[in-house]
Amino acid sequence: MSFPKSLTILFPLLFTLLIPFTNAATFAVLNKCTYTVWAAASPGGGMHLDPGQSWTVNVNPGTTQARIWGRTNCNFDANGNGQCQTGDCNGLLQCQGYGKAPNTLAEFALNQPNNLDFVDISNVDGFNIPMDFSPTTAVCKSLRCAANIVGECPAELQTPGGCNNPCTVYKTNQYCCTDGPGTCGPTPLSKFFKDRCPDAYSYPQDDPTSLFTCPAGTNYAITFCP
């Protein structure tokens, strides 16, 4: 069978356009808190979520260093410019880049080697909102960090609306691991987070107990105040 020349040219173009959406992941973000959360995603932007409201974020395969988090006590004008007490993203409702600590993070890298997604909850940037990060279309580990970290936060890490990670406060290699692999380890302050959220990152090199995988193409749900 032969095709018109125009279709012969068009088919490769359509195939190329469809490839990026193969195994794209959908993240259903739900606010179950009793207060408003301004959800943020990098990539993805941002959304005002009143209690009970949800937001769907679609992320292309191959995306790395991605994260979703919640912002609190925000005030934006009609143009989407303003500030948030925690998790602020350069003063923009439609987030560009990462948020300001403290913020509880759902982090992920999609379609990585061996057809795996790498996923985690991180307190490396501190904690502001309880979070659940769970697969919805595959059997792999559900992650949760829902302890009363803000209420129990050590005095030296306390900040309005959240609990800072020690790296944010002290900015030394002991807490930030800036001198490379194997140059830092758990501390009494990181242990505060680990004791309450054992599946979440408590310091930057906390990989063995904090980084998990799901099959590429999995969809996920992220719930604030689960």
TrEMBL record:
It is found in: Secreted. It comes from the Eukaryota. The keyword Disulfide bond applies. PROSITE patterns: THAUMATIN_1 (PS00316), THAUMATIN_2 (PS51367). Its main location: secreted. The keyword Cytoplasm does not apply. SMART domains: THN (SM00205). Residues 1-24 form the signal peptide. Disulfide bonds join C33-C225, C74-C84, C89-C95, C140-C214, C145-C197, C153-C163, C167-C176, C177-C184. GO terms for cellular component: extracellular region. Keywords: Disulfide bond, Secreted, Signal. InterPro entries: Osmotin/thaumatin-like_sf, Thaumatin, Thaumatin_CS. Belongs to the thaumatin family. This is Thaumatin-like protein. It comes from Camellia sinensis var. sinensis (China tea). The lineage of its organism: Eukaryota, Viridiplantae, Streptophyta, Embryophyta, Tracheophyta.
